[in-house]
Amino acid sequence: MSEIQTLHILNKSPEHPRFARCLSMAGPDDAVLLIENGVLGLGAASARASGKLMALAPDMAARGMGDQSGTVETINYDGMVELTTRAQQVISW
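^ thats the sequence. predicted structure below, dont judge the formating
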């Protein structure tokens, strides 16, 4: 189990200024977890995230996004909790 420097939890839609700001702040040892409306920016996020990118599967399903396992790692709520235990710090955007 590898350690994560900073876990960025992003719930803003791609149109929100914090979406781009979060992605620009993520470093190579960081992880970005897209939740709520943040999952709507999967295409943009995968192109700009420098660290590891993940998305919360229940939020993807709630927004009719279907299976995108080939483009992003999807996790469930238990996986989200596990990520927070591996991160040295957590920032919610």
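The mean pLDDT is 89.
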